[in-house]
Amino acid sequence: MTKQERIEKQKQRLAEMKQTEQELRKAGHRYIAGVDEVGRGPLAGPVVTAAVVLPEDFDVLGVDDSKKLSEKRREELYDQILEHCLAYGIGMCDHHVIDEINILQATKKAMKQSVAECNWYLAGQLAEQGGKKAAIDFVLVDAVTIEGLDVPQHAVIKGDANVLAIAAASIIAKVTRDRMMVDYAKQYPWYAFEKNKGYGTAAHYEGIREHGTCPIHRMTFLKNT
Fold this sequence. Notes:
Low-confidence stretches: none
CATH superfamily: Ribonuclease H-like superfamily/Ribonuclease H
Strand order of the largest sheet: 3-2-1-4-5
Shape: globular
Number of strands: 5
Distance between the termini: 47 Å
Mean pLDDT: 95
CATH topology: Nucleotidyltransferase, domain 5
Number of helices: 9
Structural class: alpha/beta
CATH class: Alpha Beta
Order of helices and strands: HHEEHEHHEEHHHH
């Protein structure tokens, strides 16, 4: 495949991933947030979520489910998304909250936080530009429903692979959490967090056997180890 063919394929992919948001705009929605999470499965560290509102003319090529992208490409797209998005927000629940209320509820709590932060950011950006007060008016979420959200929402199965704003959110959440886990690896060097990001790899389990758990481990995930 030539370079031009790859570009054309990426353009086609971008157009396909924009369809859901375009339909919502036709229905009268203006500020549509995509929401996704990363870190539901690891043995250690927080669950991190992101909410992202993209402009209608967003044209960055290559945005996709973060799991399909290399670390280098995610880092590149992270910078481009932050440069071109209308607003974004980060939500997070640490191991304490996960152990207390379970990972699903912690994920939803973090998602609600990210939407609130994104909404605050959006209102501030538009105010600076002299626009009218505005807010997120629709939320597209990857696979789950966020209880207590005061705007319409829709859970999209495999949303991170099919909806542009959710894919963008998946990249923001993934890069944010990965950077955190690399920093944690400096504090707790026995578990290879810089490589496994807290997931249960052989090196991670070996570290637990040799050194026990550390302060960021999710104890409810380690009951059988």
